[in-house]
Amino acid sequence: MKTTSSLPPAADSFAGWLERFLQYLRAERRAAPRTLETRAQDLRQFGEFLHRLQAGIVVSRATVRQYLSSLSAAGLAPATINRKLVSVRLLFGFLVREGVLPHNPTANLVSLKKPRRLPRILSAATLLQALRLPNLTTPQGVRDRAILEMFYGTGLRRQELVDLNITALDFANQQIRVFGKRGRERVLPMGRALRLALLEWLRVRAAMDEPKDREALFLDARGRRMSAGQVYHTVRHYLTQVTGRDKAHPHVLRHSFATHLLDAGADLMAVKELLGHSSLSTTQIYTHVTAERLKQVYQMAHPRAELAEPENPDSRPEPTP
User: Fold this and answer.
1) Ramachandran class of 108: left when φ > 0, alpha when ψ lies in -120 to 50, beta otherwise
2) Which of 66, 80, 101, 116 is 20 to 30 Å from 226 by CA-CA measure?
């Protein structure tokens, strides 16, 4: 049985094993900070459930199912319940690996079916409106324009943008080196609009007095690396001026980046690599968006599009004798 000798001594309590598991994710799986935070929250909730049952770390499959039922009764969405099941499954997989449990009680537990929800996107025209909003006579406006261009021009995840250092930019080769989930590296092209926005921001950034973080690409007003929350509110500030609040978050720019590439005929595998997806099935959701958009265009533009609606047999006139 493979063990993680670098981890601290085992603990008998759920909290002790949870701490070891989080350290394993951090050190060996190179999990991102937000992933660690999510796993910790999910599993502390599971630990509280076990505490109410006065159960220990060794649980049955029925106990896990009971936990999932309690989440459903509390009104949680299927996607949220499935994420919490993944967290529990990963923990028990770790415990099997460590020799604490003979088998994983979550094995073969099926995730809940989720209603298919297509990614929300913005049109290129709407995004252009948003890109024109930052006030370029202020340092903050120059920075914000660069952030918006970076999201839409590269399809980065929010944390990937937050983690960017100046050294990731390669203006000579017009590319950006990014480290995504689990530290996977990918190199993204730097378009002309993004390059100009970054050069302007770097000029403004260089004039800042003694930034506290000399490596970070995007800084707040105090010279510190921008947090994920600050980036979120920055993007939301501009997007809410051009679209509804349900579409006003950074991930919509990632969705729009992928969908617009596919609309223009980009290869699906190339889009997968640009997004940093490990599975092609994750990228394929954007092909559904493109198909739905084509249907809408057809319905609006083709003179006989209404014939595409299924005909109601009851509405047919009675045949004349």
Assistant:
1) left
2) 80
| 181 belongs to the catalytic site | yes
| Tokens 């919490």 belong to residue | 84
Which member of 205, 225, 254, 272 is catalytic? 254
- Residue 22 near residue 36 (C-beta atoms within 8 A): yes
Active site residue 157: yes
The catalytically annotated residue of 20, 157, 158, 255 is 157
Told to judge if 295 belongs to the known catalytic residues of this protein, a careful annotator would answer no
Residue 118: CB partners within 8 Å, gap ≥ 6?
285, 288, 289, 292
CA 65 to chain centroid: 27
User: Is 302 among the catalytic positions?
Assistant: no
Q: Is 290 exposed, middle or buried (0-12, 13-18, 19+ CB in 10 A)?
A: middle
User: Which stretches does DSSP call E strand in the chain?
Assistant: 169-170, 175-179, 185-189
Average pLDDT, whole number, for the chain? 87
pTM beyond cutoff 0.70: no
164-202 pLDDT, tens per residue? 999 999 999 999 999 988 788 999 999 999 999 999 999
